[in-house]
Amino acid sequence: MRPMPLLLPQPRHLSLVDGSFSITDRHLLVLDSPDPQALRFGATRLQETLRVAADLNCEIVASLAVPQAQRGVTIIVVAGAGRQPDGYELTVTPAGIYAVAGSAAGAYYAMTTLGQLVEQFGRELPALRISDWPDFVNRGVMLDISRDKVPTMET
What we know:
Layout: E1 13-22, E2 28-32, H1 40-54, E3 59-61, E4 71-77, E5 88-93, E6 96-101, H2 104-121, E7 124-132
Helix pairs in contact: 1-2
């Protein structure tokens, strides 16, 4: 039995299914969006994770004219997709990896989750389905240093 992926933040829904997908250098990262430039930051981070964690050099393309056999990861942004505006559905099948989001932010979260999967499993990703969305649109951390020791760069 395969181990469950350890993901942070933990997705709302994660289900493993039979099979896996082996990503190779011949696969491409396909951006399917009305504004592919908005996905560039997340795609570049995913590309770097693939390079470092799995020793893969996958190119990023913003064209739907890519043959199915070359599609490794397809990031799709469709307005109104998903349960929440910044949510996403990430599916790994034996035929490829598909992330569907309703916004560029949702696509970024999907690519971040996929990066964590690559860091854990390398080139051989387990087939699964993840559905997730953030609780809050704006997130942050408050560090109150007025009542305690002031942190240094080392801490």
